[in-house]
Design brief:
By secondary structure, the protein is an all-alpha fold. It has two domains: about 1-60, no CATH class; about 65-275, no CATH class. Helix content is about 80%, strand content about 0%. The chain has eleven helices and no strands. It has helices spanning about 1-15, 20-45, 45-60, 65-90, 95-105, 110-125, 125-145, 145-170, 190-210, 215-240, 245-275. The radius of gyration is 21 Å and the shape is globular.
Length: about 280
């Protein structure tokens, strides 16, 4: 019975069927989100949740600078992870098999319909899209006198893009040449789409979460954002313009800059409260 189900599932996945593939992906994502929400809902009713919530609130009120320090420490750790990944990938060449395996896995179900889906997803991580969306959001934040938030978002996006440019020209890794669904210029390591999408959407998710009182909804916002950012990274591998290690390096470098910007925003808010 198990072998029969496995065979039917394998046949279903191999079918060149856009509706089936979209349905499967949608159901998997929904199940993950629902399961995560249920776990959070159950945890919120436990005694441990109350203790952690009170403890974090006390720490934030008593030592607000600790949050800032933790943010800088996380940024430093992520920078170390990026450096290690760059060393193993570009100098020791220890990630070649990893790259090949992930590329084969991502491309296993490649078809024309999925090509179109990935093209749309990757557009959401492109510079023109960021340009229009960031202008609208920053303008909206400024209109509501959220100047610190607007500045942090702009610095995170522009700084992430500039750092990515510097890193690409520092490591000068050529792009993959196995297949070409779209044409891209420039160097490959780290992925600009992965790095900048994590900076931009990560900061945006944080700003949205600050206006949500429920921890469950906050967690869901971050989870959906993570899935969205991961989809952009996968699209770059699928389209053949980046190695998986390029995407991982983009996430590591983007996380480094994101946590630095978050710490900077917290420091600005702390100084602003002291001056009031």
């Amino acid at each position: 019975m198990y072998n029969l189900l496995s065979t039917n599932l394998f046949t279903l996945l191999k079918a060149d069927n856009k509706v089936t593939l979209l349905l499967l992906i949608t159901v998997m994502i929904l199940l993950i989100i629902i399961g995560f929400a249920l776990i959070l809902h159950i945890f919120q009713r436990t005694f441990l949740y109350s203790i952690l919530k009170d403890l974090l609130y006390y720490v934030k009120q008593k030592w607000p600078g600790l949050y800032i320090l933790v943010g800088f420490l996380i940024s430093g750790l992520l920078l170390a992870e990026f450096a290690e990944l760059a060393w193993k990938t570009l100098f020791r060449h220890q990630m070649v098999i990893f790259d090949q395996l992930i590329i084969e896995l991502v491309r296993y179900f490649a078809n024309h319909h999925l090509d179109l889906i990935m093209l749309h997803i990757t557009t959401l991580g492109s510079a023109p899209f960021y340009g229009v969306l960031s202008i609208l959001i920053v303008t909206g934040l400024a209109y509501f006198r959220k100047y610190l938030e607007a500045s942090a978002l702009a610095i995170c996006l522009l700084g992430g893009g500039f750092l990515n440019y510097l890193l690409k020209h520092l490591f000068v890794r050529a792009r993959p040449d196995m297949f070409h669904i779209i044409k891209e210029t420039g160097y490959s390591f780290p992925s600009g789409h992965a790095m900048v999408s994590l900076c931009f959407y990560g900061m945006l998710a944080y700003l949205i979460s600050q206006n949500i009182s429920s921890w469950i909804w906050r967690a869901l916002v971050f989870m959906l954002t993570a899935i969205f950012i991961a989809a952009i990274g996968v699209s770059r591998i699928y389209l053949g313009v980046h190695y998986p290690t390029d995407v991982l390096a983009g996430y590591a470098a983007g996380s480094t800059w994101l946590f630095f910007c978050l710490s900077l925003l917290m420091w600005w808010e702390h100084k602003n409260k002291q001056n009031q």
